[in-house]
Design brief:
- It contains seven helices and 17 strands.
- It is α/β, with parallel strands linked by helices and about 290 residues long.
- Strands 1, 2, 3, 4, 5, 6, 7, 9, 10, 14 and 17 form an eleven-stranded mixed sheet that branches.
- A hairpin with a 2-residue loop joins strand 9 and strand 10.
- It starts with 14 loop residues before the first strand and ends with a helix.
């Protein structure tokens, strides 16, 4: 079985847009070193405007302009930073390189200290670009896109929530508990995993539907094909809260219908050729120890 399905490589690598972890001015030193690393390979760098302000610089570029003028983006921070960059740039179909300032992440596999060696491989076309599934959520007149997950949660701690679910218009389940997680395969190692959901290989195209603290022990996680439409109808007088990738929240009323489908766009992540998802699992989850 082939475990990697790499997308087409970059045609040019002359311009890079850099986004830094928010509220982290202490990584300014590493930012300037990253600029020097790229300059050594004749890559012109541009800094996103919020990151520039954080470092008291005045040459920042809006993320929209950044996506239109560079060949690839560089996320400097951790998995959370990369998650935010993906959600705000996916419509531009631009690849993203994640640089982790700490230890190895599930999404960011280039540790900062390894960047100089990776750039040598990068310029020898010894890298790959993974296409990752995104999930789209429609509620009322709004559309949200998530990279990891969409969570439908109760509003108050003191009560449970009832959610009626349909697949392609046909009823299939009523959930009663703290909520429901609709996860992508990439997000299967996030909140989904913490409540007992399955780990799914990240290049798979599938939905993972996982109940959170269900009232009935017969409620179990489901892995469903991504070419379906899932509807969740809120049946709670208090309404519910939607959490998009754990970063944005949106309150909905009773009887609101939340429709979930696969997004047309993909997230494009730049990785080392040798990156192996199962080695990451072994490292992060201590499998085999």
């Amino acid at each position: 079985m082939k475990l990697t399905r790499s997308a087409k490589k970059l045609k040019t690598k002359s311009k890079a847009g850099i986004i830094l972890k928010p509220e982290s001015p202490e990584i300014g030193k590493e930012y300037f070193e990253i600029v020097d690393y790229f300059k050594a390979h004749n890559i012109e760098t541009f800094l996103e405007e919020k990151s520039a302000k954080m470092l008291n610089l005045y040459n920042g570029v809006s993320l929209e302009q950044l996506c239109e003028k560079v060949d690839f983006l560089v996320s400097v921070g951790g998995d959370g930073t990369l998650l935010s960059v993906v959600r705000n740039s996916f419509r531009y179909n631009i690849p993203i390189l994640g640089i982790h300032m700490g230890t190895l992440g599930f999404l960011t596999d280039i540790v900062y200290e390894e960047l100089p060696n990776f750039l040598i491989d990068f310029f020898n076309n010894n890298y790959r670009i993974d296409n990752r599934m995104l999930v789209e959520c429609q509620v009322n007149d709004k559309t949200f896109v998530a990279f990891n997950d969409i969570v439908i949660s109760r509003k108050t701690v003191s009560s449970m929530i009832k959610i009626k679910a349909k697949i392609d218009g046909a009823s299939f389940n009523n959930y009663y508990g703290d909520g429901v997680i609709i996860s992508t395969p990439t997000g299967s190692t996030a909140y989904n995993l913490s409540v007992g959901g399955p780990v799914v290989y990240p290049l798979t195209e599938a939905f993972i539907i996982t109940p959170v603290a269900p009232h009935s022990l017969t409620q179990r996680p489901l892995v469903m094909p991504a070419d379906i439409e899932i509807e969740f109808k809120i049946k709670d007088e208090q309404g519910a809260v939607l959490l998009i990738d754990g970063q944005d929240t949106y309150e909905v009323d009773n009887n609101t219908v939340v429709k979930v489908t696969i997004a047309k766009q993909k997230a494009k992540l730049i990785h080392r050729t040798k990156r192996n998802f199962f080695e990451v699992l072994n490292d992060k989850l201590q499998w085999g120890n």
